[in-house]
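Structure ticket #2291
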Amino acid sequence: MLATDYASLFSAEQKRVLNDTAHGQSTAKIAQNINATQADVRSIQLDIQARLDAKNTAHMIHRAWQVGLLGTKALCLLLAALTLQPQDNAIRTARTARTRTPSSLVRLKSGAVGRNLNA
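Resolution: structure written out below.
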């Protein structure tokens, strides 16, 4: 199915919700933009997901871009959002470092992991 075929499947309101979702706007903000409730916006998003045969919101955005419903700006924003995730690893590493006892840190630094230092 061509992009023009997909475009005809969606109303102007659905396209607006799709674009706003792809641009990272919250459900509350989208609801305000189209004068609807958050439940209405979520219902529209689920309908779009079903029409695009997408499993979740990220997949919906990917499928919409894939079939030509979204321009390159939305793709750039999506990629930018995905690149922010490595910060999660830094937080996890900091959390792990705080949970180690001083003696386990000494064993790690000295390379004596798995050896008994008291023997």
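Closing remark: The chain has a mean pLDDT of 76.
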